[in-house]
Write a structure and sequence with these properties.
The chain is an alpha+beta fold. The protein is built from 12 helices and 8 strands.
Length: 391
């Protein structure tokens, strides 16, 4: 399928399936311009079975070639499919981001053998992935990472530590960045590998978050064997893979709100009760959400513009969740004993704090936007011996 007619048909195909597979009350909310809320509101809705069917239909990986488990749709058609999923606020699991990003890395930099081996199972979510990028002293400054991969007769041996590795405790595979050059080589001495998370020498320790969940993890690697066939891209060329994956991550994060109350849900909750100031704040957030939706639809979440959309989305969602908690008033302070709706809103507020960190902190995003998108001068580099890593 090609052209605008094909885009319309792809959107219609996904929408028809959504209307047939989601509960009638869910669809009625969407038709009325209201948020359907969380899946827990529909006791007869089998979320696990619904997600299995969605992955089986390949709508999330629609742009991947069919031979690798996708549908072979154009980027415009795939975007139309995702727009339909977003409009119906379907319950996408958080591990979707890791699947899409690892898939992007394999599609862009993997061998044909690697793609055939990993992508079809990734497309159906039968194997979960994680990213092993950040380290305790190498988060935003990823080029200073110290996890080391050394050559041996069978391939490589990896030793080091990673942190903030989302879903590593569930993941079957990990996308790993390790130093293969000297510490001074910075970007030019990093190599990317696919790591079997069940390998000997790997220990995963979940980290408790502000929300009480433990989806982030520390990952310790002690002499972990990695075959050279699991290398993604050339030796010492892993920075190219990392940049590609991070740009895709920022684009993906800019496409949708990750966690928290929806603006339509807030308007419904406070309709007829909010005062003039609250109504103005709700209207401002509504306008911001609509603008971000239009930006994503027009493709601004791709390429260098993805950095700006990711930053705007993170800031907008934190502002929205702060407003949601503010409108709850004193009852938001009693989350544990609060009614379900209030508890969800407080949880969303706490979860939204991660929006300004995941995929690159908002501070780093501002630097990237200034230097790469707007062409502003780079920040001054520290003088030799003055302390701090060189950029």
């Amino acid at each position: 399928m090609n052209g605008s007619g094909s885009v319309a048909r792809s959107h219609l195909e996904v929408e028809e399936w959504l209307r047939a597979s989601l509960p009638d009350a869910w669809v009625a909310c969407v038709d009325a311009g209201r948020s359907p809320g969380s899946a827990s509101r529909y006791p007869d809705f089998d979320e696990a079975a619904w997600l299995a069917e969605m992955f089986d239909r390949r709508y999330l990986m629609a742009s991947w070639p069919a031979v690798y488990g996708g549908l072979g749709w154009s980027p415009e058609m795939a975007r139309a499919a995702f727009e339909a999923l977003s409009r119906y606020e379907v319950p996408l699991p958080l591990y979707v981001t890791s699947l899409l990003l690892a898939g992007h890395g394999l599609l862009q930099h993997g061998t044909a053998e690697q793609r055939h081996r990993f992508l079809p199972k990734m497309a159906t979510a039968s194997e979960i992935w994680c990213q092993l990028f950040s380290e305790p002293e190498a988060g935003s400054d990823l080029a200073s990472l110290r996890t080391r991969a050394e050559r041996d007769t069978a391939g490589w041996v990896v030793t080091g530590q990673k942190v903030w590795s989302t879903w590593a405790h569930f993941a079957r595979w990990g996308l790993l960045l390790a130093r293969t050059g000297t510490a001074e080589s910075r970007h030019r001495g990093i190599t990317c590998f696919v790591v079997d998370m069940e390998s000997p020498g790997i220990e995963v320790r979940p980290l408790r978050q502000l929300t009480g969940d433990a989806s982030f993890n520390e990952v310790f690697m002690d002499q972990v064997p990695v075959d050279d066939s699991m290398r993604l891209g050339g030796v010492d060329e892993g920075w190219n893979v990392a940049r590609s994956v991070l740009q895709a991550e920022r684009g993906e994060l800019g496409q949708r709100r990750v966690g928290g109350a929806d603006i339509h849900r807030l308007i419904d909750r406070h309709r007829g009760k909010a005062g003039p100031e609250a109504r103005q704040r709700l209207a401002a957030r509504y306008a911001q959400e609509r603008i971000l939706g239009w930006m994503a639809w027009r493709g601004y979440g791709r390429g260098l513009e993805a950095q700006a959309v990711k930053l705007l989305r993170a800031e907008a969602n934190m502002a929205l969740q702060s407003l949601a908690v503010s409108l709850e008033g004193p009852r938001a302070g009693a989350r544990d004993g609060a009614e379900a709706e209030t508890a969800e809103i407080v949880y969303g507020f706490l979860r939204s704090r991660a929006n300004s960190i995941a995929g690159g902190t908002s501070e780093i995003m501002r630097n990237v936007i200034g230097e790469q998108l707007l062409g502003l001068p780079r920040e001054p580099r520290p003088a030799a011996g003055a302390g701090g890593p060189e950029r």
